[in-house]
Amino acid sequence: MATSGRADDTRPAARAGEAEGGAGDTAPGPLDSVLRPVRAGNGFEEALEQVLQLLRLGLVPPGERLPSERELSQHLRISRVTLREVLKVLQDQNMVESRRGRYGGTFVLPRTAAPDGDGELRRRIAAVDVEDTLRFREVLEAGAAGLCAEGLTAEGEGRLRGALDATRGARLEDYRRQDTLLHLTLAELSGSRTLAAQYAAVRATLNELLDGIPLLVRNLEHSQQQHAAVVEAVLDRDPDAAREMMREHCGGTAALLRGFLA
Amino acid sequence: MATSGRADDTRPAARAGEAEGGAGDTAPGPLDSVLRPVRAGNGFEEALEQVLQLLRLGLVPPGERLPSERELSQHLRISRVTLREVLKVLQDQNMVESRRGRYGGTFVLPRTAAPDGDGELRRRIAAVDVEDTLRFREVLEAGAAGLCAEGLTAEGEGRLRGALDATRGARLEDYRRQDTLLHLTLAELSGSRTLAAQYAAVRATLNELLDGIPLLVRNLEHSQQQHAAVVEAVLDRDPDAAREMMREHCGGTAALLRGFLA
DNA sequence: AAGCAATGGTTCTCTGTCATACCTTATGCC
DNA sequence: GGCATAAGGTATGACAGAGAACCATTGCTT
């Protein structure tokens, strides 16, 4: 029994992209904003994505140790077994290395110079909605800069200055990391945890895109001037200026990326 | 065996909130932006949250039918069994009603006048970081308005006008819904799917908060003027004005909420 | 040298979820 | 009236993942 009788359920349902036709009452568009998959992958994939974020953002620089498996799995709310599968993948990719014993742990390895045979990179980029990323990024950055300028504490002031200084002293191969850290600091000082978290996600995507294009010293210097201007505006408690400068700064990166990926 | 011997794993780890102490090298803050739970709940809870969004946003108004169980489960990427558990909860809460047979389905019931014994409401609000919500909302709204003003298509123009008109004709009990729809339209026209999705989420939270305070006609009229001003700025392709007006508009709601929830 | 503590490595069981198939009910159309 | 259809309702087998307990390795402390 249970042969090819009436396969009742689980039909393709024409196309799974659009919920309603044009029924005239319930709008077809808005539903898609909410009715998106509850989970982006098998849970293991999602954890992998987050640990990758950690590396792409440079929050744990090469040579440093990740939090222990027990800590990480608790933070990510996945079992240690699943987390270890994630780490296994990263080990196979030569991105991290695990050492046992006390004071052991999982350590970040320096980036091996892009072994991807060109095809892999383009495939990753194709999977990203570049326009979405750039626009969303600009919105978050400008908003964060504005919020910072409105309610910056003395402690925040210190952190911001520190982050800016760090970008100045950074060597070329460390610049992207310090740049990321500066922007991440701004996002955190915005006073919205959600904003910070979302920025972290979009920035990880952005860094992945940026890895595909050359880092020009000229752009870097320009970028650095803009950083200074943004921070200055924030320290002056001038939200409008901060937002405006940040938008300009983001526009630069966006133009660069659009140019290279066109 | 397996008694109270050495309970090796699964220790409380002092406190699960902060990853690193003040180790001096790896910053303690930024890690938290990324190391957040992979899944907010047991997957069933997350689905429940999304269906609740659907209702709170008024995307499916009272009396209307939700997408069929098969469709919904496919969109949310959960099994029909799990989805039915979600719907079961909503049925028990008298929020939806299921009817069998062809042209049956799950229908949204009109809101039963807040049966919560006051305690429930406060508990829900306490679970929300109000400041986070308000700030993040303002950032997204202002950003969306700006992006809209920059690249509005003819079709978008029509949708925007339509949404604004709908708010004008709305009766008092339907106003919140039309208001939400207008803002959601703006978010979608921003050209960033991520922005739209995030706005939907934050707006659902906001609506939940707004349900706790009275709807004053005076505020409503003021709100309506601001809506018109924002839309006008967008139609004039004036991003700065659009952003500025939207920020003002959001500021009004924020002040109202802060006042009532103080 | 011995012991302790923190880490990665392994194995087990049990629950939640998925996929699939099938049943039941109501409606419109012929 | 009968049938096709679309919806909700139900049952079951397989599997991924969580949780807990354990083992193995290392380096610091005594």
TrEMBL record, chains A, B:
Record's signal peptide: none
Span list, region Disordered: 1-34
Keyword list, A-Z: DNA-binding, Transcription, Transcription regulation
Record field: compositional bias (Basic and acidic residues): 1-12
Residue ranges of domain HTH gntR-type in the record: 41-111
PANTHER family referenced in this protein's UniProt entry, alphabetically: GLUCONATE OPERON TRANSCRIPTIONAL REPRESSOR (PTHR43537:SF24), TRANSCRIPTIONAL REGULATOR, GNTR FAMILY (PTHR43537)
Protein name: Transcriptional regulator, GntR family, in hypothetical Actinobacterial gene cluster
